[in-house]
Amino acid sequence: MTEAENAVAIVKEFLVASMIPDAERAATYMHPEVKITFTGGRAMAARQISRSLTALATSG
């Protein structure tokens, strides 16, 4: 597997975990200090993203 193919595989694994959603597993793919900016300019830190995924998983 090339370096690029390995990177793609890691991103796919993260996306699968985040869509299930499995917040704990998805968080293992992120640096503890990562900040992601979502549509509309809303920034979230890794722990906020994990909480949001957990909330989605438990909402009915």
Task: Describe the protein.
- It is a single chain.
- The protein is α+β, with helices and mostly antiparallel strands and about 60 residues long.
- The protein has one domain (about 5-60).
- It is about 60% helix and about 15% strand.
- It is built from 3 helices and 2 strands, in the order ααββα.
- A two-stranded antiparallel sheet has the order 1-2.
- A hairpin with a 3-residue loop joins strand 1 (about 35-40) and strand 2.
- The longest helix has 17 residues, at about 5-20.
- The chain starts with a helix and ends with a helix.
- The mean pLDDT is about 80.
- It comes from Salmonella enterica I.
Helix/strand order = HHEEH
The tally of domains stands at 1
How would you describe the oligomerization state of the chains in this entry? single chain
Strand content: 5-15%
Arithmetic mean pLDDT:
81
Which spans have pLDDT < 50 for at least 5 consecutive residues? none
Overall 3D geometry?
globular
* Biggest beta sheet attributes: 2 strands, antiparallel
**Lateral arrangement of strands in the main beta sheet:** 1-2
The assigned structural class equals: alpha+beta
Note the topology:
Elements: H1 3-19, H2 23-27, E1 35-38, E2 42-45, H3 46-58
Antiparallel strand pairs: 1-2
Protein name: Membrane protein
